[in-house]
């Protein structure tokens, strides 16, 4: 799919990060620190931003958290970290924004869950209050509907209406309809309260990949608001990565989605940045964006009984990731470079020629030499005990000569 072959949506400006319109799909993440702990929250926001999170969401659930937001913003700015902050509000957002207007000003965007703003008339009033703050301070809003916190009164009404049909829909279909209705009716109310359409982002998140795909396919046909994609709770490890990749890839390939978040459950003490890297890799694998040079490496087989090529591939991948914060500014376009590290003569030379720069290491029983290819042409043959160091230097020289 072409990078520009996306379903047309409105463009929402979040502190100079565009979501929707012709802008590339935006990667975002969320902290898991207590927002009232300013030091830890600032540290994690900065780490996520360095990893490539273009927006970072923080929980604003208590008065202490709300009061901490302005200081978090100030400290990040002093560090030179200008990543926009999104405030995640549930239940008491109207009270917190009213009590701490500095928090309302410091945030770039508010996330509001229609199912958690209150019931009935009171809920409408509290939702209106939050929208009024967004209008007053010119902030964007994500209206984020979740499967696990869907407005039960709305669902009950739609179930009653469904029972009266000659051919009632399945329960899951009614639930899908309720998610979409909640999001779109809330967006319509927000516009009635004065929030421009180009300040609204919508999400309808579930934990099932297949259900998510169905809902977003229908949602994208019914509105022009930018859409935030992601499973509500993707899960841990490979399960979370695979489920997110499966669901989001199908939608993105159809041109659906303007910003994504991969909601991985980290292991205790594990760095939060993995979900950012997974989101980037999904977009890069689909050819929608480029974030870092890609390493092509063979999986290994009986011809590669030595694990040398695996170590070299890992070392090169780590080296490229470590260099990207520096290279991103010094060498524009380097993020589109491909590097091949292959383990034997079967596919080694061919894959190396296809990459910008590649090395074909000797397999079991092969001559102990490693030809290096640059832009399809063999430039040198390495041998001896320092192949890894020499190849890394060749990669660095290539970057300097081709992207400066």
From TrEMBL:
Binds 1 [4Fe-4S] cluster. Its EC number is 1.17.7.3. One of its GO terms (biological process) is isopentenyl diphosphate biosynthetic process, methylerythritol 4-phosphate pathway. Keywords: 4Fe-4S, Iron, Iron-sulfur, Isoprene biosynthesis, Metal-binding, Oxidoreductase. It comes from the Bacteria. Residues 294-396 form the IspG C-terminal domain. Pfam families: GcpE, GcpE_C. Transmembrane segments: none annotated. Its cofactor is [4Fe-4S] cluster. The keyword Oxidoreductase applies. One of its GO terms (molecular function) is iron ion binding. Pathway: Isoprenoid biosynthesis; isopentenyl diphosphate biosynthesis via DXP pathway; isopentenyl diphosphate from 1-deoxy-D-xylulose 5-phosphate: step 5/6. It catalyses: (2E)-4-hydroxy-3-methylbut-2-enyl diphosphate + oxidized [flavodoxin] + H2O + 2 H(+) = 2-C-methyl-D-erythritol 2,4-cyclic diphosphate + reduced [flavodoxin]. The keyword Chloroplast does not apply. [4Fe-4S] cluster binds at residues 298, 301, 344, 351. Residues 9-279 form the IspG TIM-barrel domain. PANTHER family: 4-HYDROXY-3-METHYLBUT-2-EN-1-YL DIPHOSPHATE SYNTHASE, 4-HYDROXY-3-METHYLBUT-2-EN-1-YL DIPHOSPHATE SYNTHASE (FERREDOXIN), CHLOROPLASTIC. Converts 2C-methyl-D-erythritol 2,4-cyclodiphosphate (ME-2,4cPP) into 1-hydroxy-2-methyl-2-(E)-butenyl 4-diphosphate. Belongs to the IspG family. This is 4-hydroxy-3-methylbut-2-en-1-yl diphosphate synthase (flavodoxin). The gene is ispG.
């Amino acid at each position: 799919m072409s990078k520009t072959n996306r379903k047309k949506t409105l463009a929402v400006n979040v502190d100079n990060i565009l979501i929707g319109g012709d802008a590339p799909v935006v990667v975002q993440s969320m902290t898991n620190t207590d927002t009232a702990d300013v030091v830890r929250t600032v540290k994690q926001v900065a780490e996520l931003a360095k990893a490539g999170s273009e927006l970072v969401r923080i929980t604003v659930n208590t008065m202490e958290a709300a009061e901490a937001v302005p200081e978090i913003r100030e400290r990040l700015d002093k560090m030179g970290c200008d990543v926009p902050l999104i405030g995640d509000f549930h239940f008491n957002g109207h009270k917190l924004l009213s009590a701490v207007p500095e928090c309302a000003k410091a945030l770039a965007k508010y996330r509001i869950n229609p199912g958690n703003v209150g019931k009935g008339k009171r809920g409408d009033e509290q939702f209106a209050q939050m929208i009024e703050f967004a209008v007053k301070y010119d902030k964007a809003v994500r209206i984020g509907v979740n499967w696990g916190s869907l407005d039960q009164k709305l669902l009950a009404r739609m179930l009653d209406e469904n029972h009266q049909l000659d051919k009632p829909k399945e329960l899951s279909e009614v639930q899908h309809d309720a998610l979409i209705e909640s999001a779109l009716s809330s967006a319509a109310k927000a516009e009635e309260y004065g929030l421009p359409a180009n300040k609204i982002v919508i999400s309808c998140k579930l934990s099932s990949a297949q259900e998510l795909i169905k809902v977003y396919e229908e949602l994208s046909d019914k509105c022009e608001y930018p859409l935030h994609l992601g499973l509500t709770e993707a899960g841990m490890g490979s399960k979370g990565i695979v489920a997110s990749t499966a669901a989001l890839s199908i939608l993105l390939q159809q041109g659906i989605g303007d910003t994504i978040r991969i909601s991985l459950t980290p292991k205790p003490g594990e760095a939060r940045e993995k979900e950012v890297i997974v989101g980037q890799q999904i977009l890069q694998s689909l050819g929608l964006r480029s974030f870092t040079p890609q390493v092509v490496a063979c999986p290994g087989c009986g011809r590669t009984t030595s694990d040398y090529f695996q170590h070299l591939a890992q070392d090169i991948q780590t080296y490229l990731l470590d260099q990207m914060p520096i290279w991103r500014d010094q060498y524009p376009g380097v993020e589109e470079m491909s590097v091949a590290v292959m383990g034997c003569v079967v596919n080694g030379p061919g894959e190396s020629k296809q990459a910008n720069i590649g090395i074909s290491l000797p397999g079991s029983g092969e001559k102990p030499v490693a030809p290096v290819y640059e832009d399809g042409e063999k430039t040198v043959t390495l041998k001896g005990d320092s192949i890894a160091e020499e190849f890394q230097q060749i990669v660095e020289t290539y970057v300097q000569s081709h992207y400066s």
